[in-house]
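Hi P.,

Sorry for the delay on this. The queue was packed all week, but I finally got your sequence through. Input first:
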Amino acid sequence: MSSRITRRVAGCVAAVGALILAPQDATAQLGKLTKKIKEKAGQAVDQAQTKPASGQNDAPSQAAAAAQSQGGRKVWANYDFVPGQRTLFFTDFTDETVGNFPRRLQFKTGSMEVVELDGERVLKATNVSGFVVPLTENLPARFTVEIDVINRNSMSVAAPTIKVYGGTAAKTDIDTEKTRVAFGHLGWDVTGGGTESQAQFTSEEAEAFMGHPVSVRILGDGAYLKVYADGRRLANIPNASFLRGRGIFVALEGRDEEANAVYVTRIRVAESERTVYDALTTTGRWATQGILFETGKSTVRPESAPTLKEIAAALTKLPDLKVRIEGHTDNLGTADANMRLSQARAAAVKDALVKEHRVDASRLETAGLGDTKPVADNKTPEGRSSNRRVEVVKL
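Then the structure:
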């Protein structure tokens, strides 16, 4: 697949919600950006978020580089985001036409088009804009939303750059009754369920986000809502009551100037299904997209820690259980390359469980299966996303 992703962040706030609402000042970008973008942003980011190199999960981020420079995985101490397993929507704009609005999103307002940014296709917003991420079913009780953005490189406006709302078609419904999650380089806020949680970043934090890539993550579980930016958990609200509809409205606040446009590079919405423990004790198999790797390599990224911790905890509860760690890819890239990479990544997961989570190595086997065992249609973005996975299988 492709390269690395760089995320610029400027006056931005991210909000996630369940159906449609009229956009407000907000900006979002997700996806992949290359080394050139990093150089333009003046960031020595070791690895940025990318599209999987050979069909396996590759992940953000600037935060990963920050984690390494600030004591490795310690900076991820409160990062407990585990991506949902069943992909409901996925796009990284690879299949979209430059100059057009993405076919798989619903345009609502503003000025947006797909552009090439250093060889990668991304969605660009140059003014206050909004679109709906359509779903084929209502957002489930347990869900995750992943949005990768490059935000404005200006502190001229203290307004959200990206917002995601839960609600129906009427803006007033969402603003007054439903949950809004907003994130930007100046700060963040979550409003909904009769609650409000917000914070401003320090000038140093704002400067670090401004003009640089950021991964925004939202985890919903019933009324519970957690919000993350890169390796940091920002909000942890027990009664946010995020509305479940058949879509998510995203608002972007771009500017006409090139440096102050907002880019979205990747969007993924998924359902969180059974825990590792529940799956192993019932079906004997658990799949995850939550173990992430450096682009085209088998190096496990720091963002994978919550998922690895969950696997280790399940094995602790089942002390007599032995499992096989399987690596799987989509069908992009050559079959031989996918097979070799999946084998190396399965071995890397075992190594991380043994060294970092003290799992007895004798309880773990590994296998790389490449693209030979798809669980979904590789012809769709959602299918390819589901096929890029690591599985834990009871022996």
